[in-house]
Amino acid sequence: MSATLEALVKMEGVIMAFEYTPDGKCTAYKNVAPEMAAMAAKFCATVTMEFNTLASSFSALSERQWVPQQGWMYRGGDYTAIAGHGGYRVVFVETARANWNELLEALFGSK
To answer: Per-domain residue ranges for the chain?
Structure first.
């Protein structure tokens, strides 16, 4: 089971955490202003939707299983966005400070 937003924002390097619906509506957030959470949710929902589309296409074309989506990551500058919980729970982290094993376990669990 993935970690709660409260648990995520207590992890090393995490600066904010939020959740959203497939249509981009922010449903919960921690350590971020409501306006920023709403904007980030819309952008992240678009990325999640794109990866869902790509995964379905790759599954059909390659005859390999790419779905269901578990999440995604983006790294740029000094920060990384990690979307877990099917792509609908996101943390923004300071890349250099992040405890990657802890974050990935919290967002994706172990398989």
So the answer is: 5-58+67-108
b (16+ CB within 10 A) / e for 63-88: eeebeebbbbeeeeeeebbbbbbebb
CA 31/CA 59 separation, integer angstroms: 37
Cis peptide before 22 (omega within 30 of 0): no
Tally: H helices and E strands in the chain? 3, 5
Q: What pLDDT sits at residue 1?
A: 54
Token digits of residue 46 = 């678009």
Domain over 5-58+67-108 is classified CATH 3.30.450.30: yes
What is the per-residue burial (b if ≥16 Cβ within 10 Å, else e) of 8-22?
A: bbebebbebbbbbee
pTM as predicted: 0.92
What stretch of H or E contains 60? Answer: helix 34-62
